[in-house]
Specification:
The complex is a heterodimer of chains A (238) and B (464). Chain A is an alpha/beta fold. Helix content of chain A is 51%, strand content 16%. In chain A, helix 12 links the parallel strand 7 and strand 8. Chain A starts with a strand and ends with a helix. The chains are: A alpha/beta (238), B alpha/beta (464).
Chain lengths: 238, 464
């Protein structure tokens, strides 16, 4: 099928490897991948801050450009939730209300697209390391994604998955929250990092680069040897 | 004078730096979570229990007018005097009026968050009455001249050493670290008060419309003594606490105990149907129920967020909230803290003054998942943010989002912005975490990822 990739702004500019891995995996599975250049951001920062008209300025063009897509696949549970769950609310009672409703069922977070939509869990990946998985809140609670990333990780050769205490507890990123309330955000991140460190894992893996940006920012400031990696980058390893 | 948001930020800074404080709360709540999960497993199906509870509360709140009238009629039929308080001042005046008319001097009180909400103790003390809190946790925070830390566990921020020290200083007791002995010290101090008190004031967990009864659950038996021994009993209850039928308690009592404290059922569950009836040998001679609105009807008028009135004050959302676990209860500066407090305080006390509570959340949704009556808590935080920004937008924030939209919607400009970010990276590193750094809110405690040589879109273009 033709897969329209939605590469969020921070993945595009800071974590290109995540997008590249997704392209490689999807093409290996025989799908045609398209990625419209004009689509860059889902509009979540303004939306979460309460600035809905400004969020629509960003989200409106996205909605128009995605309306003919067969499926839309996103490297982030958070941006995925924005398109799938929050666009219908953001555009309720506007001219684009129907378009937002129509887009919603076509939107897939990457791990769920592989495991649930395509039914593929073994991608022939090899990654000999001990990893722990962090459930990004939006993916977990807005999209209900819990088992898909784990089913994918279980099939990776050489990989040992160890669950951390409070895997489902927020890492403290929360978008603009992390800059508006840095002390709270940092304290939450410290708890997350401590939970991950207890497992003795080499990597904290997640399906959301935004969580990982926060966790990695703390780990590297603390001088911790633990590294972070997006699920797609592991699944693309041979 | 500082604003509420400044107080909040200052206090959050203090507590997030206090590892001992955070450790204490997190350890306590971890124990709660273990107990709660064990008790939840005793339900045949926790999710359908939540659904049933949510539907019952939906019915109660959407027909509040008829259920409240039914409740008041039934209570009055057995001799209870029912009072309707529109706001906090009215509620205080009604209660002080009853106390004055009885010529009372001392008052014993059991746990009531509504009394905190209307600052009842302050008002009674200013009027010259002695007020003693009979719930152990409330008794402790009262001795410390502090508000309760948590709506269910008022003294959870204190260790037994803290309490020992407090009792030695305030009650002149001997030093001990034994919880039983500490409890006995409080008990000895309190028993005398029950006997001498002229008026007993309680809160309420539920108000049953069908039978006209107040339901109170507690673990210490103190509310029973508060209600039974003084000649006059007053119950202060928020109007949202109504349940349609007596049988609803069969679900709500175990649910409240499980979600709130990880218990199968709370130690004492009592129903109060009115004053002493002819031929009865005990109970108060006079019973007053004060129904408190205090802007709850304004929330009722908002169909989008009306379900916030479903709240049974179990505290489950506080207990799972990573914000609460890292800033603690007092930081909020409100009667109702944690997620539900961040949802309802802007409604009860003013959106613009309290919008920071709705803002100080990562919107993780752990609260919504935990809520036994299925309040859409974290989405209500979003709605409060939207309403706040619509009412009084910040000039700079709105400008920033407009600029962002302008750039991101133009691929050429966006490419230029990325290029500029990459080119100025050495300069950014130079000023990192200094007052010149525009990203200091982030870089003060976290590193920024390095800019890659090529963005995804550049790679994609090149590949094509």
């Amino acid at each position: 099928m033709t897969v329209t990739l939605f590469i969020p702004c921070f993945v595009d500019s800071l974590y290109p490897g995540v997008g590249i891995s997704m392209v490689r995996i999807l093409e290996r599975l025989g799908h045609r991948v398209v990625c419209p250049e004009e689509i860059a951001c889902c509009g979540q920062p303004a939306f979460n801050s309460g600035y809905w008209p400004e969020a629509r300025e960003v989200a409106g063009p996205v909605l128009r450009r995605l309306q003919d897509a067969e499926v839309v696949v996103i490297a982030s549970g958070s941006c995925g939730a924005m398109l799938k769950v929050f666009y219908p609310q953001l555009f309720a009672e506007t001219a684009q209300a129907e378009a937002a409703k129509a887009l919603s069922p076509k939107v897939w977070e990457f791990s769920s697209f592989l495991a649930d939509k395509l039914g593929v869990t073994d991608l022939g990946a090899r990654f000999p390391a001990k990893v722990t998985f962090h459930d990004g809140c939006h993916g977990l609670r807005e999209l209900g994604i819990k088992t898909a990333p784990r089913r994918l990780l279980e099939k990776v050769q050489g990989l040992e998955l160890v669950e951390m205490a409070d895997a489902e507890t927020c890492c403290g990123f929360g978008g603009t929250f992390s800059a508006k309330f840095p002390m709270i955000s940092t304290a939450m991140g410290e708890v997350k990092c401590a939970g991950a460190a207890e497992t003795g894992a080499d990597y904290i893996v997640s399906n959301d680069s935004s969580c990982l940006m926060h966790v990695q920012g703390l780990l590297s400031r603390q001088g911790s040897p633990i590294k972070t990696l997006h699920l797609a980058e592991i699944l693309a390893q041979r | 004078m500082t604003t509420h948001v400044q107080d909040f930020l200052a206090q959050a800074r203090v507590v997030t730096r206090d590892l001992r404080h955070r450790g204490l709360i997190q350890t306590a709540l971890r124990k709660y979570e273990t107990a709660r999960d064990r008790k939840k497993a005793a339900f045949n199906d926790w999710q359908s229990a939540r659904q049933a509870a949510a539907e019952t509360k939906w019915d109660a709140i959407n027909h509040l007018d008829t259920y409240l009238a039914e409740f008041a009629d039934k209570m009055e039929a057995r001799g209870t005097q029912v009072h309707w308080a529109g706001n906090a001042a009215e509620a205080r005046e009604i209660i002080l009026g009853i106390i004055r008319s009885k010529g009372a001097r001392s008052i014993i009180k059991s746990k009531a968050m509504t009394a905190e909400e209307i600052h009842l103790n302050d008002a009674m003390e200013k009027a010259g009455y002695e007020v003693v809190e009979s719930d152990l946790g409330e008794f402790i925070v009262q001795l410390r001249h502090e508000p309760p830390y948590h709506i269910v566990f008022p003294a959870m921020h204190l260790t037994r050493d803290d309490i020992n020290e407090l009792f030695q200083k305030e009650l002149g007791s001997a030093s001990t670290r034994e919880p039983e002995e500490l409890t006995m010290i409080a008990r000895r101090a309190l028993r005398r008060k029950y006997i001498t008190a002229d008026v007993g004031i309680t809160g309420a967990n539920f108000a049953i419309a069908e039978t006209g009864m107040i339901s109170i659950t507690e673990n210490e038996g103190n509310a029973r003594l508060t209600a039974a021994l003084p000649k006059t009993m007053i119950t202060l209850v928020g109007i949202e606490k109504v349940l349609p039928k007596l049988e609803d308690l069969a679900l709500f009592l175990p649910m409240l105990a499980t979600a709130g404290a990880g218990q199968t059922i709370t130690g004492y569950n009592t129903m109060y149907g009115g004053p002493r009836q002819p031929g009865e040998c005990d109970g108060p001679e006079e019973y007053h129920v004060v129904l408190l609105d205090n802007r709850r009807t304004e929330l009722l008028a908002d169909p989008e967020q009306r379900d916030a009135l479903h709240c049974i004050r179990c505290g489950a959302c506080l207990n799972v909230c990573p914000i609460f676990k890292n800033v603690g209860g007092h930081t909020y500066g409100t009667t109702y803290s944690g997620p539900v407090g961040s949802v309802i305080t802007p409604h009860l006390r003013g959106l613009q003054d309290w919008k920071h509570l709705s803002g100080s959340s990562s919107l993780c949704g752990a609260c919504t998942e935990a809520c036994p009556v299925k309040i859409d808590l974290h989405h209500h935080l979003l709605r409060n943010r939207r309403n706040a920004a619509f009412g009084e937008p910040s000039f700079f924030e709105r400008l920033a989002y407009r600029l962002f939209a302008f750039v991101i919607n133009r691929p050429g400009l966006y490419r230029f912005a990325k290029e500029a970010g990459r080119l100025t990276e050495p300069l950014q590193k130079l000023i990192r975490n200094t007052p010149l750094d525009p990203a200091r809110a982030w870089t003060g405690s976290r590193d920024l990822p390095p800019m890659p040589e090529q963005s995804f879109k550049e790679w994609w273009e090149e590949r094509r």
